[in-house]
Amino acid sequence: MPLALLALAIGAFGIGTTEFVIMGLLPQVAGDFGVSIPTAGWLVTGYALGVMLGAPVMTALGTRISRKRMLMLLMGLFIAGNLLSAVAPVFGVMLLGRVIASLAHGAFFGIGSVVAAELVAPDKKAGAIAMMFTGLTVANVVGVPLGTFVGQSLGWRVTFALVAALGVAGLVGVAKLVPDLPKPEGVHLRHELAAFKNVQVLLAMAMTVLGFGGVFAAITYIAPMMTEVTGFADGSVTWLLVLFGAGMFVGNLVGGKFADRAPVLMLTASLAGLAVALGLFTVTAHDKVAAAVTIFAIGVLGFATVPPLQKRVLDQAHAAPTLASAMNIGAFNLGNAISAWLGGLVIGAGFGYTAPNWVGAALAVSALLLAFVAEGLERRAGKFAPNTVPANNISTIPANEAYRTVHS
């Protein structure tokens, strides 16, 4: 694998750390600013909304410059946002810093996915995308618990300063290691927007919302579920989240490996397994060992869907994949927000802390049904499509040519 993928993974590690570490530091932040925990929760919600807004906006703004330069600008934005959070004198300024940092999130992963796919041979695209996302999964295993420990020991401001330093490392890595590949000729914003006329692109994004939403319907409420239902101590929740992150790491690698060989089978098998695991979690949540095993399994199966879904968006968007790729990252966050809301509804309705697991299972089943629909439409299109040149006839740099450019 090219060293450029390491630079992308470092950036992903920093982004993943800042996204999730705030959850463990909310009490400290709320106490310092004199706000309630629900008010401090806007630091999570604001970040998610910023990702959904930033994915299309930042990608659209970057269509006129090279992808390498845009990645560097995004890391600069990420650094600025985290530094602002670290020195924020009042809560509103910290919230602004979180939003600024979040604007880089979707576009970085979206553009980074396209760059990663261009750096390798065409039959290794999903593996390259998975390598970049490894930074995000490792963040959940190492970055988040370590950042939480540092924040609780030395102060949450130190944590955000260190995250900004990670951004500097990612920026330097992109500048030194990522090749400045030529921009595809003739591809403008209107071509990027045209990708959304493709029903397969829309189906893939809907699968992302529902499939990953299924994961976070359960994981969002893992703390009260594990303490009130399973009987774990409060301090054990951190290690259960580390276990979940380890599952994400394994699932990402497995998904990347097999998505290049059998993408449809990898996607459908993962979604089916995820639906089963989430359904069983309602039962296994009453036993400590079984609950821990299930949490790991949900991490594996949930993140095994990421490489095939991201690769599917890239493939279906054809000549203009950048905006579609970034929007699919926003779809992950949209799924997180919707599923957390639905999980809160069933808990509020009195169905208990395990009820979100059923919500997650239903969302995963819905994503699986869409996968079957997408595959059926693709087979039908392949059977009846005439052997003609695509109507847009956009001149682009094929992935294999870009690969030769990097390795020549």
TrEMBL record:
Regions that span the bilayer: 42-61, 73-96, 102-121, 128-150, 156-178, 199-224, 236-255, 262-283, 289-309, 330-352, 358-377
Gene Ontology MF: a single term: transmembrane transporter activity
Species this protein is from: Nocardia terrae
Protein's membrane topology: Multi-pass membrane protein
InterPro entries, alphabetized: MFS, MFS_dom, MFS_Efflux_Transporters, MFS_trans_sf
Entry GO terms, CC: plasma membrane
Keyword annotations of the record: Cell membrane, Membrane, Transmembrane, Transmembrane helix
Domain (Major facilitator superfamily (MFS) profile): residue spans on this chain: 4-379
CDD domains noted in UniProt: MFS_NepI_like (cd17324)
Pfam family, one: MFS_1
Name recorded for this polypeptide: MFS transporter
SUPFAM superfamilies reported in the protein's UniProt record: MFS general substrate transporter
Domain of life: Bacteria
